[in-house]
Amino acid sequence: MLPNGEHRITVNDVEHWIRVEGSEAPGEPVVFIHGGPGANAFLLEQTVGPHLAVSHPVVYYDQRGCGRSGPALGYSMEALVADLDGLIGALDLNAVTLAGFSFGGQVAAEYAVRHPASVRRLILVAPPILGPLRWDNRLAGLDAVADPSFRRVLRESAPSLEFTLGRPSFGSLRHLWAAMDARTGARFSLHDPDIQRPPGLPEGEGLASNAEFADAVLAEQRPGSLLDDLAALDVPTLVIVGLYDRTVGVDACRDIVDRMANARLALLLRSGHAPIEEPEAYAAAMTAFLVS
Fold first, then answer.
1. 3-state secondary structure 209-231
2. E strand or H helix at 113, and its extent?
């Protein structure tokens, strides 16, 4: 394990920024995988990470072309999984515990499916992993929290959205995200839209999201169902979701636990999609899982 602090590791011709916290902690190391897609690890550094680092070494990293990592020539799930495998090898972490948040949970699950022997435990925090018959709940969540003017835009736009197996395409949703007011965005993302956020969140000290990254990975068509492939694994798994998560939703997370042979669900009662409101509770759920 590297010492605490920031480091640079080049994997697959991309210079990756990583940071280690709690390197002297007694527990097994946990690699955090941030969401987005195209965001960075800053939110995790400011919320859940420090609480878990009291008992377990934590490794943060920014994915290729994101945040403080170097630019990349292309973006795909295959590249992200290969990058993560290279980082795990460079850190000399044999069987590792992965903690993936939102889109990062999808990356963690894809890694576990492709490298099951390399994963000791899996923590998936509100991962967008839906079975082929599970309807996307974002539109209903938006409709519930929107002000009257945005609700009209949403309902007028819904019939013209492009759907594939119950999910509106990212491109067809783009104008809705652009039309959304800040208050609706806060109510959609959080249980308490008036919560005092840590400075710089959610993007973090000027670290803008990588739109090219998001467009590329969201446009990919995965062969087969990730949930089906994940269900075939026997890796100890913890799925965490906030009761007010309107992006992925409790039902989809429960589906994952129902399908997997060795999984449990942690439901946080005062959280939305992001781990901003109850960071100590997220860390406590992780710690209880890691020492069980």
1. CCHHHHHHHHHCCCCCCHHHHHH
2. helix 103-114
As beta bridge partners, residue 9 has 16
For 117, which DSSP code? Answer: G
pLDDT of residue 203: 45
- Rounded distance between C-alpha atoms, residue 59 and residue 4, angstroms: 9
| Amino acid (one-letter) located at 76 | S
Q: What is the three-class DSSP state of 21?
A: strand
Q: In the chain, what percentage of residues exceed pLDDT 70?
A: 95
Q: Is 177 exposed, middle or buried (0-12, 13-18, 19+ CB in 10 A)?
A: exposed
pTM of the model: 0.94
Query: For residue 200, is pLDDT > 60?
Result: no
Whole-number Å distance between alpha carbons of 284 and 277: 14
User: What is the pLDDT at residue 279?
Assistant: 96
